[in-house]
Design a protein that fits this description.
The protein has about 120 residues and is α/β, with parallel strands linked by helices. Helices cover about 30% and strands about 10% of the residues. It has 5 helices and 3 strands. A 3-stranded parallel beta sheet has the order 1-2-3, with helices on one face. The structure holds flavin-adenine dinucleotide. Flavin-adenine dinucleotide binds near residues 17, 34 and 43.
Length: about 120
């Protein structure tokens, strides 16, 4: 970004925000992702012990999968049902802050954790 264009801002690095960011990256835009939590998918981490009712093939955004595979990511068994924690570890964590072409991430001001600044 050259400073003359405003970024597309995505609020929240949950499953939907990360999918939106991946789709924007594929369109050649560099989104700015604002996340209130200390890590991506903060909300899902809160119920990480629960097994999802959707198998892997339904819970990975195709654009995010393409970007991750560029970085050597291997898709999980599409027919398996992960827990919330397993899903976070295998997908939002590698797709989130600091990961390859995941765009820029920042915590909203005043939330305290400089790791996201
Ligand atoms: C127990 C349980 C089991 C589920 N199982 C399934 C399943 O099997 N299959 C399925 O398809 N769906 C399932 N869901 C639903 C799925 O988790 C949600 O549809 C999905 O998480 C929604 O994604 P999201 O990104 O919109 O929101 P969230 O996951 O809620 O993520 C929002 C993110 O935005 C951040 N945020 C919030 N406010 C702000 C702010 N003001 N500024 C910056 N960041 C902010 C939060 O910290 C969070 O990281 C389940 C939900 C629950 C609770």
């Amino acid at each position: 970004m050259d400073g003359t264009a405003l970024p597309v801002v995505v609020v929240g690095a949950g499953p939907v925000g990360l999918a939106a960011a991946a789709e924007l990256l594929e369109q050649g835009l560099e989104p700015l992702v604002l996340e209130a939590g200390t890590e991506a998918a903060a909300a899902v981490r809160g119920w990480g012990h629960v097994r999802l009712f959707s198998p892997w093939e339904w819970i990975v955004d195709p654009a995010a999968q393409r970007l991750l595979e560029e970085q050597g990511w291997t898709a999980p068994d599409p027919e398996q049902y992960p827990t919330g924690a397993e899903w976070v570890e295998r997908y939002p964590r590698p797709a989130g802050p600091g990961a390859g072409r995941a765009g820029r991430h920042r915590r909203p001001r005043g939330r305290g954790d400089p790791a996201w600044a």
